[in-house]
Write a sequence for this structure.
């Protein structure tokens, strides 16, 4: 058993960029454990896409090709990757922690009698053994997880766990791997993806964003936030629970299931800062956090923080901003 | 339609947590516990399906003694009966073992549908349901927002990234992991609470645990990624300091 296999993700001929971060994690793990780096991607008609892999640092990349792998299904992907892993017998299998990976990787790991170390935010190797850093309790604590015992180790890396900028240039051999699949193995029928409604707000290009979370408590408290946003000339955004409750439309949701934003200033009000939210706003140039809990994980990524009751701080801030702007 | 809902009991969302003396978990003394929020939505989805199509909702939970009130609350909300897998060793076992216990406890039930939350609020590994489906040999779908019953099948709306969705159809029996926030959660009624006292909670002892393949070695406080400048003072003072910073340092207003 040897090798670090990184499972890359593509959708209809386009790479998921988190694939390269996972590959960077694989590169680090391969170097620090002295094992070869391998990569794989599954789908149908991958030839053109796989040309991108030739300069990647993996020794070999496997194009796992089969007509039944398009569209994606957990049954198809598990069957295909199970065959590849049995053939390569790697020590580690790394994935980007995408929604697709969350759907099939736990099942795949279980076939090897393993538990996936999911949603890893950092990786460090000591004595040739990796520790995978994960969040607990919505980011209140971190923990080191380790794999023990026999068999391959499966882990999925959250966006930002490793940087794609560290990827070395290499000469990667691309091979086609054709798994044995039958249509009857795929038990679900998928329809084409759809997007909910027309976008009416472009958070991605907004220079200032005021974002509101659970701390707001009730929909009736939203006008206070709207007023702050107006005073600043900012767009109003929210964390998931606010949009789930229907208090703001889904298109104003920032996070892994919503928008990814990178404003000059992101003001997070009453947002605790779970990883699913952080991945959507970590590109912000300056982050301001207002929260009553001084241990809220949002302060870990904040440049400026105010610990306090948002119902007192927000109206005061609106007034202060108006005063500074002379309005 | 016979529906199983797998639930977990976790520390209450607003809990102030402290790392325990061994540095391997949190100090559970003085903590309050509640149903894992995504599991509450799984339960709600199960109850709505039962109200529409008839049948039975059975709650299954692997947890220590303290999980009993959380199970009773699920019964008070309308589940018909429950299975409590006595598991005082959750900190020592991995997801595969938890899923094995849940699968073993429900394998004799011949359920049409198994529901659970997409992840737990404490560990957040997000895979117990998927692994349970694999062990039971049934198809699954994850991060589900809507469920429509069909003849011998179920059509579900799955959340993808960046505001995309996808519908898919699965033959029954199947397992779904339910997204938070997809419906309004009900409260237990007084009548429900009264009825729950007489509902069956079957206690089962799990088979001896297999050695954990993945283990939590150390718990620690997250390190700040940035040097955070904390702005002190009364709300009014802090607000005017921040406004001044936004003008003169960040230069956005």
């Amino acid at each position: 058993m040897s090798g670090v296999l990184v499972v890359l993700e593509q959708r209809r001929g386009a790479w998921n960029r988190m694939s390269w971060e996972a590959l960077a994690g694989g590169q680090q793990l391969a170097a620090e454990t002295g094992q070869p780096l391998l990569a794989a991607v599954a789908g149908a008609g991958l030839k053109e896409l796989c040309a991108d892999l030739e300069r990647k640092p993996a020794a070999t990349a496997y194009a796992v090709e089969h007509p039944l792998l398009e569209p994606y299904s957990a049954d198809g992907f598990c069957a295909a990757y199970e065959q590849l892993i049995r053939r390569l017998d790697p020590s580690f299998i790394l994935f980007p922690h995408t929604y697709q990976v969350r759907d099939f990787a736990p099942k795949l790991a279980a076939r090897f009698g393993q538990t996936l170390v999911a949603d890893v935010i950092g990786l460090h190797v000591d004595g040739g053994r990796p520790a995978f850093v994960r969040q607990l309790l919505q980011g209140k604590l971190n923990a080191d997880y380790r794999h023990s015992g026999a068999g391959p180790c499966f882990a999925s890396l959250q966006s930002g766990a490793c940087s794609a900028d560290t990827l070395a240039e290499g000469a990667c051999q691309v091979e086609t791997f054709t798994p044995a699949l039958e249509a009857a193995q795929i038990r679900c029928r998928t329809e084409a993806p759809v997007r909910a409604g027309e976008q009416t707000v472009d958070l991605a290009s907004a220079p200032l964003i005021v974002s509101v979370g659970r701390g707001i408590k009730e929909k009736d408290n939203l006008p206070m936030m709207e007023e702050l946003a107006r005073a600043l000339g900012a767009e109003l955004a929210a964390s998931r629970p606010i949009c789930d409750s229907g208090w703001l439309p889904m298109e104003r949701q920032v996070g892994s299931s919503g928008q990814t934003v990178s404003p000059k200033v992101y003001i997070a009000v009453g947002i605790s800062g779970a990883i699913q939210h952080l991945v959507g706003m970590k590109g912000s140039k300056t982050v301001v956090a207002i929260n009553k809990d001084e241990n809220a994980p949002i302060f870990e990524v904040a440049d400026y923080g105010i610990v306090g009751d948002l119902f007192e701080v927000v109206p005061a801030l609106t007034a202060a901003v108006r005063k500074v702007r002379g309005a | 339609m016979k529906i199983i809902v797998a639930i977990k009991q976790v520390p209450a969302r607003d809990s102030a947590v402290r790392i325990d003396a061994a540095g391997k978990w949190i100090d559970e003394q003085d903590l309050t516990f509640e149903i894992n929020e995504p599991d509450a939505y799984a339960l709600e989805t199960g109850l709505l399906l039962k109200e529409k199509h008839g049948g039975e909702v059975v709650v299954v939970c692997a947890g220590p003694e303290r999980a009993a009130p959380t199970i009773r609350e699920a019964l008070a909300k309308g589940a018909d009966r429950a299975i409590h897998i006595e598991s005082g060793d959750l900190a020592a076992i991995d997801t595969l073992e938890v899923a094995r216990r849940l699968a073993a406890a429900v394998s004799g039930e011949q359920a049409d549908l198994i529901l659970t939350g997409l992840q737990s609020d404490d560990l957040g590994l997000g895979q117990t349901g998927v692994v349970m489906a694999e062990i039971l040999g049934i198809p699954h779908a994850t991060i589900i927002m809507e469920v429509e019953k069909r003849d011998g099948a179920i059509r579900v709306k799955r959340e993808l990234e960046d505001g995309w969705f996808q519908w898919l159809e699965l033959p029954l029996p199947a397992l779904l992991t339910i997204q938070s926030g997809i419906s309004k959660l009900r409260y237990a009624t007084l009548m429900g609470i009264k009825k729950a006292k007489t509902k069956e909670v079957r206690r089962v002892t799990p088979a001896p645990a297999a050695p954990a393949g993945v283990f939590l070695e150390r718990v620690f406080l997250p390190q700040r990624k940035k040097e955070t400048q904390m702005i002190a003072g009364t709300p009014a003072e802090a607000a005017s300091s921040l406004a001044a910073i936004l003008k003169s340092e960040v230069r956005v207003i």
